[in-house]
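Internal tracking record. Fields below are filled automatically when a chain is submitted to the structure queue. Please do not edit lines marked as system-generated. If the sequence contains nonstandard residues, flag them in the REMARKS field before resubmitting.
Queue: standard
Priority: normal
Entity type: single polypeptide chain
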Amino acid sequence: MASIDRKIQRAAAVKQIKKTRAENNRVTKEKVAAARATRENEEPLSPDVQARLAEIVARVVSLHRKSTGQIFELGECLAEAKSVQPEKRFGRWLKDNCGYSVRSAWNFIFVHERLAGHRERLEKHAVATTALFELAKGEPDQIETVLDLYDEGKSLKPSEIKALIGDKKDEAEELTDLRQLGGKAGLQKMAAAKLKSSTAEFHRLIAAVLVGLEEAVARHESGKRIVMNALAADVEINARHASDLFKDVVAPLVPVGRMPKANLQHEQFGLKTGWGAVQHSLYRLGGVGSWPVRDEMEKWVIEVAHPALRFAVHGEPYVVRAAAATSPVLDVAKTDSDVTKNEQIAAEKEVKTDETTPAISDAELDATLNNIMVASKVPAAASMFR
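SYSTEM-GENERATED OUTPUT FOLLOWS
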C-alpha cells in the first residue's frame, strides 16, 4: 500500500511541476513580447522618416475629401505612412497626427490599393467616399460590373453597391466540402451555406432591377413616357433570376388544393404584403411577353413595382394602393414550369371574343326571316304551273 501511495504522490508532483513550467513559459513569452513591442514603439525613427511623416501629416490635413481624387490621395498617403514605421506604431501615429481610427485608415488604403486601376473612371463619375469603401470590398469582376453601371449613367447608392458586391466567401468554408458532412449538423451547414449565397445573389439581382426601375421612374417624373423596350432590356433577366431565387429561399412549398397527390407548389404571398408585392413584381418583370399595354404597365411600375423593390432593397415601408390592388391584371401562373401561362390566357380570351355571337335586334331578325320566306315561296309557286 505504501508503494502505491508513493507512486500516486509522485505522479501528482510531476503533474504540478509541468503545470508550473508551462505557466512560467507563458509569462516569460508575454514579457518578451511586451518588451519587444515597447522597443519598437519607443525606438526613435530616423530623421528622414520623421521628415517624410511630417510631410504626410501636412498633406493629410490639407485634404478635405471633397473629391474622388482626394480620397485616393489620402489612401496613398496613409499607405506610405504605414509602410515607413513599425506596424504597431501606426495606430498611435494616426491618433496623434490625423485623428483617424485604424479601421478608417484601412478603408482609405483599400481604396488606393484595390481601385487604383479604376481611378480615372471613378473620378469621372465623382464617386463618394462611402461608395468607394463598399466598392473596394468587391472582387475584380464585381467591381467591373458596378463600373459598367456607372458608365451607363446609373446613379448608385452605397447600399446598392453593397448589394451588388455581396458578401465575400470565407476561405475556410471554401476549403471544406460540405457534401461530405453527414448527419443533422452537416445538413444544417449545407442549408446555411446555400441560404447565404442565394441571399447575397438575390440582393445583388434586385439591386440591379431597382436601378432600371429608378431610371424609368425618373424618366416619367421628367414628363416623358417610359420606354418599355429599354426597361425590358434593363430588368427582365435579373428579375426572372431573382424571382426564382425568391421562391427557392423564401416561399414555402404547400400542397395544391384538392389535389393531394400533386407536386407541391410555392406559396403566393399576395399583393397586400411587402414581400408579396416583391414576389409579384419580380415574376411580372421577368416575363416581358406577358406585360400589359403601355398605360397599364407604366402605372403598375410606378405604383407597385418601384415601391416594392425599394422595400426589398432599402427597407422602405410598402403601402398598398387600393387602385393597384384592385386593378385588372393578367393571372400569375402558380406553378414553376408554367412560364407562358399569361400569354395563353390572353390568347384564349381573344379567341373567345372572336367566337362570341354578335347581338341582333328583333327588327333585324324579323326582316331577315321575311326575306327568307319570300325567296322560298317564289320558286315553289312557279313549279306548280308547270
